[in-house]
Structures are given as structure tokens and as C-alpha cells.
Design a protein that fits this description.
The chain has about 475 residues and is of the alpha/beta class. The chain folds into two domains: about 10-190, NAD(P)-binding Rossmann-like Domain (Rossmann fold); about 190-395 and about 420-455, 2-Layer Sandwich (Dihydrodipicolinate Reductase, domain 2). Helices cover about 40% and strands about 15% of the residues. The chain has helices spanning about 10-20, 25-40, 70-80, 95-105, 120-130, 140-150, 165-180, 195-205, 230-240, 250-260, 280-290, 365-375, 380-390, 400-410, 420-425, 430-440; strands spanning about 60-65, 85-90, 115, 135, 155-160, 185, 210-220, 270-275, 310-315, 320-325, 335-340, 345, 350-355, 445. The strands form two sheets. An eight-stranded mixed β-sheet has the order 13-12-11-7-10-9-8-14. Helix 6 (about 140-150) runs parallel beside helix 7 (about 165-180), helix 10 crosses helix 15 and helix 13 crosses helix 14. It is globular. About 50% of the residues are buried.
């Protein structure tokens, strides 16, 4: 999410990245075809369903992190400040980044071991420090392998977005989590935003009636990343060039999916269709820029459409629109709209229109009326932690609140707020949308990563 996140992939990895992505389309087709056409593979013997899983309590949580660029270093600093954390390991390819985070973490009383300079240094860190929880904050293509490696090493894995790139990798994550009894959580920070928590509480209290439709997005103009040196944009640019679909759906989709309790007892993901606009903006920007990080950006063929629109149909027949656009010159939005039989809540800007609650359901609330209603329905977790989270920072406090809840759940032996299956459902929009776009909008069935277990999984409660 942070446009300044540093790269944690080696020079050799960069040289082979375009070649690697050249085969990604075939991998997506094979993986999604396997899951869609053949259904869910059977659960291996001895594996445990993880829908409501709660790990044994930990008095202290030994924490390690892989990737400490701009976003990873922020996570490291915030984790180090949370009670009950014992920071044991920091890993990145770059020594300067590791040393920077080591200094910040040490100032908070920790003595982490540091690892750098080798693509496999993270494996050495896991073996030597034996962490309880590993935070994976690296380029997208490394998320799946590192999550699996962390769980096999005995740690719970907490992964930046997306959880993996292919449904094949997502099945490996699910199978590993079920076999090892270790959590693997997608770190969807937006679910911990003030408005998202507020809307979840209102939905759970029945204020909107029966839910019918949601709208979500990640529309964030980030073309300038191509000029920002050795940062997120340096490696993401190749994804934009070679992949055509909805590559970053989770920030908008995560909250809407939890409002609807998708994959949690009430409803689930069923099918998706997806279309992309023409690809124009990235190439035009590269041609006009005099400050590109890499001259080759000028000659890249950008195949991904500037705007992708995907539509999900759920098992109960509800609909969700998801849009993704990191190219067009337009204001930031995640939409964050949820609609029911009694009214609608939305974001960007915030607004409510609810029968019997707002002054009108023909016009959105103004700021004063919105805040008056919000005061009545404020989420208990935000009441408890909101002010501290704002002080600690991270996208208005949502980052810190997410990290705090992770540690709190591990220490108290509670189920996590997001289970492994949700992370895979939300992330699978990426490869499914690519396949749908390639097939001119043909519907794609979601794999059931729960193997039917979603029907008995409890909806996310209102955490006090």
C-alpha cells in the first residue's frame, strides 16, 4: 500500500523477473483451471480445518520480519512497541535497511539478530531464531513461498497483500496451514479503519436490514512510482506491464467481504466476471517522463488495462463490484459501499442514507449528521484503541491497530480477525480476473478453499 516501500529482491532476481512473469499467464490458467474445473481437492489426512482456529496462548510472542523497506520498517517499529512482543529477527537483502530497523527496534528494548545480503537469509533466520510469528513484507511473488516456509518452520505467518499470486500457491498455503496448525493471515489493514469498523458494527446490529450489494475499489494514481528509484514501483511496474486483471483487490474487498460474512457461515464467493479498459496511461507517462528509474520502462509493452472492473456473485446471489486503477489521474478512493434493504453506507466521501435513521434516504448525510450517528454505533474496538492507534500512526492508525490485534489474539489464544481462507478468497480475485479478462469476460468459479467448512465458520464478531 505504501508507494515508497523498498525492494527486497536481489539483482539476479530483477534480471530474471520479466522472464518469470512471461510464464505467469500459463501458471494462472493452469492453477485456476484446476480449482474451478475439478473442484476443491480433498483435505489430506490429519489436517485440521482452520476457520475458527485459536492457537495456544503465548505469554511472549517471538517476532521476526522479512523485508524492512518503508512499509516493513514501519511494521517493525510498531511491533517493537507492543507489550508482549520479543523481537528476535530482522531480515532484508540490504544491510542498510536491516541496520536502520535494528536501531529502531533496539531503542525499544529488543535485541534482534540481523540477516542480510543473501536471498535465503530468511530461512537461516527462521532456523536460528525460531520465531512464533513471521511478518512477510516483500515483493508480491515472494509472499506465497515465504508464508509456506514460515509455517513449516513452526511460525504463524502474517503476509502483506496479496497472500500469493496464483490459486495453486493459495492451495499450498491452505494445505500447509491445516497440516501445521499455524495461522496464515493476510494483513488487510483497511479492515481496521475507523469507518470500516463502524460500518461492520452497524451491519451486525441490523441497521441496513438484509445485505444486497457492495462496492469496493483501489483507485490510487501511482504512475510516479516509475520515477522513485529502488522502491515498490520498480518491481510493480513489471506486473502492470505483463498482467491484465484486478491485481490489487483486497483493500476495498476485505471490509465488504466481512460486512457480508463471506466465507463465514452466511454466504461465500461463487463466481466472478472481469473486464479491463485499454492500456494507455502507463506507456504515455513513461514516454513523457525524463526521470524514469529504468530506461527500459519507456519500451515496455503495458498489457494491463488502466481500469479493471470485476463483478462477484455470491452463493446467496449478492453482488460486489471491485475496481482497480493505479494509473489514471483521478482522486483516491476505495468506495467502501455496502447496501441493504433499509439503506446504504459509503465512503470517499463518507455518507449514510438509511430509512428511519438518517434525515433522508434521498440525500447523503452531511458531516454533522454522519458523526452524530457514528457516535451511537462506534465500534467497541475503536473506542478502546482508536486514540492510541492514531498516535502510533500507520495510515491513520489502522496499521498499528491491526498489528496490536494480531499480538493480542496470539497472547490470549483467540481466533484471528481474518483467517487463512479469507486471505486466499480475497487474493484469488487477482488470478481469476486475469483469466476472465483473457477470455473476454467469461465467468470464473472461485475455488472453495474451505472445502465446505465456511458453512459452519462463525461470522466475525464485534470485538470489545
Amino acid at each position: 500500500m505504501n508507494p515508497d516501500e523498498k525492494v527486497t529482491i536481489s539483482a539476479a532476481g530483477r534480471r530474471t523477473f520479466l522472464k518469470t512473469l512471461g510464464g505467469v499467464g500459463a501458471a494462472f490458467t493452469a492453477a485456476t483451471g484446476l480449482a474451478g474445473a475439478q473442484g476443491s481437492p480433498s483435505r489430506p489426512s490429519g489436517a485440521k480445518y482452520m476457520g475458527d482456529f485459536a492457537a495456544p496462548k503465548l505469554a511472549k510472542v517471538k517476532v521476526a520480519i522479512i523485508g524492512v523497506g518503508a512499509r516493513g520498517s514501519g511494521h517493525a517499529s510498531q511491533l517493537a512497541a507492543i507489550e508482549g512482543v520479543d523481537f528476535v529477527g530482522i531480515c532484508d537483502l540490504r544491510e542498510d535497511l536491516v541496520k536502520r530497523s535494528e536501531k529502531k527496534v533496539s531503542e525499544k528494548g529488543h535485541k534482534p539478530k540481523v540477516y542480510f545480503g543473501d536471498e535465503n537469509a530468511w530461512k537461516k533466520m527462521l532456523a536460528e531464531t525460531k520465531p512464533d510469528a513471521v511478518f512477510v513484507v516483500t515483493p508480491w511473488e515472494l509472499h506465497g513461498p515465504m508464508a509456506v516456509g514460515a509455517m513449516k518452520a513452526g511460525a504463524h505467518a502474517f503476509v502483506e497483500i496479496p497472500i500469493a499470486l496464483t490459486t495453486e500457491e493459495m492451495w499450498e498455503i491452505v494445505n500447509t496451514s491445516e497440516a501445521t496448525g499455524r495461522h496464515c493471515m493476510l494483513m488487510e489493514n483497511v479492515n481496521y479503519g475507523r469507518e470500516e469498523l463502524l460500518y461492520l458494527n452497524m451491519v451486525r446490529q441490523g441497521v441496513l436490514g438484509e445485505l444486497l450489494h457492495g462496492e469496493s475499489a483501489y483507485i490510487h494514481e501511482l504512475r510516479g512510482q516509475m520515477e522513485n528509484g529502488d522502491t515498490t514501483g520498480s518491481w510493480r511496474t513489471y506486473h502492470y506491464a505483463k498482467r491484465n486483471g484486478n491485481l490489487y483487490p483486497c483493500h476495498g474487498l476485505g471490509p465488504v467481504a466481512q460486512y457480508m460474512s463471506l466465507g463465514r457461515g452466511e454466504d461465500n464467493f461463487r463466481r466472478l466476471v472481469s473486464f479491463s479498459s485499454p492500456s494507455k496511461g502507463r506507456a504515455l507517462y513513461a514516454q513523457s517522463s525524463q526521470k524514469l528509474t529504468k530506461p527500459e520502462f519507456k519500451t515496455l509493452k503495458f498489457e494491463g488495462g488502466d481500469m479493471n472492473t470485476s463483478i462477484i456473485k455470491t452463493t446467496l446471489g449478492r453482488t460486489i463490484m471491485i475496481q482497480w486503477d493505479e494509473t489514471s489521474p483521478r482522486p483516491y478512493t476505495r468506495h467502501n459501499l455496502i447496501q441493504g434493504t433499509k439503506g446504504t453506507l459509503k465512503g470517499f466521501p463518507n455518507g449514510m442514507a438509511i430509512e428511519g435513521v438518517t434525515k433522508s434516504h434521498h440525500e447523503w448525510t452531511d458531516d454533522e449528521e454522519f458523526e452524530k450517528i457514528a457516535e451511537k454505533y462506534e465500534h467497541p474496538l475503536f473506542k478502546r484503541m482508536g486514540e492510541l492507534s492514531k498516535k502510533m500512526g500507520g495510515h491513520g492508525g489502522m496499521d498499528f491497530l491491526m498489528l496490536y490485534r494480531i499480538i493480542e489474539c496470539l497472547r490470549e489464544g483467540q481466533p484471528l480477525d481474518q483467517n487463512v481462507y479469507e486471505g486466499c478468497f480475497w487474493s484469488s480475485v487477482g488470478p481469476l480476473s486475469e483469466k476472465s479478462v483473457k477470455e473476454d469476460g467469461m465467468p470464473q468459479d472461485f475455488p472453495d478453499f474451505t472445502r465446505g467448512g465456511w458453512k459452519t465458520t462463525k461470522p466475525l464478531g464485534i470485538i470489545a
